[in-house]
TrEMBL record:
It is an enzyme of class 6 (ligase). Belongs to the glutamate--cysteine ligase type 2 family. YbdK subfamily. ATP-dependent carboxylate-amine ligase which exhibits weak glutamate--cysteine ligase activity. It holds the Pfam family GCS2. It comes from Streptomyces coeruleoprunus. It catalyses: L-cysteine + L-glutamate + ATP = gamma-L-glutamyl-L-cysteine + ADP + phosphate + H(+). Its EC number is 6.3.2.2. SUPFAM superfamilies: Glutamine synthetase/guanido kinase (SSF55931). Keywords: ATP-binding, Ligase, Nucleotide-binding. This is Putative glutamate--cysteine ligase 2. PANTHER family: GLUTAMATE--CYSTEINE LIGASE 2-RELATED. One of its GO terms (molecular function) is glutamate-cysteine ligase activity.
Length: 383
């Protein structure tokens, strides 16, 4: 493959973030999504919405060209949601799962018809399906190319799970996992890594066949971890837990953009992407969810178990020319340094528990970091 410097105007990127609403007293999740969304200022109305349960709200950025624009957008949306939550006597919290159980048991499902249809189709599987993600969109209007780019992104999904893991606790219990959100999602038959696709037509045929089994709601809207977005001219990557630190979100988003751009170059050169075993890829994602950063995981292209820090270095080397072309290398390097020094969000949650002695300290730290304009240093790990 010839090395083509991306140059020119970078493709835009956008982010969706999901958050829990929590009570400031008991720190449990609060079923108030509809009320909080209604309090958001009109200027942000198109950027926020409810989510699957009333425990949650979602914020969305506009398409952004660079890291600073994305950071400004994210901070603005978070600020608006946080203010609306405070007006209801609540707080905004970025964690992949509820650290402490919600009020009144299972929360009401949001009002969107798709959410209601999901409950009818999946039944008790949705009973504790209150999980918060962040999704990255990269502008890629050619859907045929987007499917093939997805083939190139698939092998890196376990690493993205490990780097973003931020859900070790679930309803008052340490799960032993770094990303329990990934485990909850993984029990669904059509959530997780996408299948390899020879073409857009192949992708659509498989989605239609799976929908006919009722394992997928709609063939036009698969919920795989990488997909051409059904409504937007983007490739969407959906495997990550929501992150409390905006700077981590920005850095990981720019890294994913660089991966998509690099993959698009390869597709343009006639490379349809590697074809690792889907079963091995799903197993690798599970191990990444269990162990997280700074552990080791399966490199699905070689079958070897490799430290995630080494896999991250390999990914940066793979996309370095794109990161440099768009001015994103420094942000990504700083993100990897933070991971090396302080661990993932899951590590930091456990560090806050050790320092504060109970889970309310974990929630307090998440709330503070979710609303901070600059990174907050975690407490020293206990000796």
């Amino acid at each position: 493959m010839k090395d083509r410097n991306p140059g020119g105007v970078p493709p835009t990127m956008g982010v969706e973030e999901e958050f829990f609403l929590v009570h400031p007293a008991g720190r449990g999740a609060a079923a108030a999504g509809t009320r909080v969304v209604a309090r958001v200022p009109p200027a942000l109305a198109e950027r926020v919405s409810g989510e699957f349960t009333e425990y949650q709200v979602e914020g969305r950025t506009a398409p952004c060209s660079d890291a600073q624009e994305l950071r400004t957008e994210l901070l603005g949306v978070r600020s608006g949601l946080a203010a609306a939550a405070r007006a209801e006597g609540l707080r905004l919290c970025a964690s992949g799962t509820p650290v402490i159980g919600g009020d009144g048991g299972r929360a009401d499902v949001g009002g969107h018809p798709r959410y209601r249809a999901g409950v009818l189709q999946y039944r008790a599987m949705h009973d504790d399906f209150a999980v918060c993600a962040f999704h990255v969109h990269v502008h890629l209007p050619d859907r045929e190319a987007a499917v093939l780019v997805g083939n190139h992104v698939r092998p890196w999904l376990p690493l993205l799970v490990a780097m973003s893991a931020n859900s070790p606790f679930h309803q008052g219990r340490d799960t032993g996992y770094a990303s329990w959100r990934s485990v909850i999602r993984g029990r669904f038959p059509c959530l997780g890594p996408p299948p390899y696709a020879e073409s857009l037509a192949d992708h659509e045929r498989l989605a239609t066949a799976i929908a006919a089994t009722e394992a997928m709601l709609e063939p036009g809207m698969p919920f795989w971890d990488v997909r051409p977005n059904p409504a937007l001219p983007t490739l969407e990557v959906r495997t990550m837990d929501v992150l409390p630190d905006v700077n981590d979100t920005v850095a990981l988003t720019t890294l994913i953009r660089a991966l998509v751009v690099t993959a698009a170059e390869r597709v343009a050169d006639g490379d349809p992407g590697p074809r690792p075993s889907s079963e091995l890829l799903r197993a690798a994602c599970w191990r990444a969810a269990r162990d997280g950063w700074p552990g080791a995981g399966v490199d699905v292209l070689t079958g070897r178990v490799v430290p995630f820090s080494v896999q991250a270095r390999d990914l940066v080397d793979h996309v370095r020319h794109t990161l440099r072309a768009y001015g994103d290398e420094e942000d990504v390097t700083a993100f990897l340094r933070r991971l090396s020094e302080h661990g993932s969000g899951a590590d930091r949650q456990r560090t806050h528990l050790a320092a504060g002695r109970d889970l309310t300290a974990v929630v307090d730290a998440l709330i503070q970091e979710t609303n901070a304009p600059t990174p907050l240093a975690p407490p020293d790990k206990p000796t």
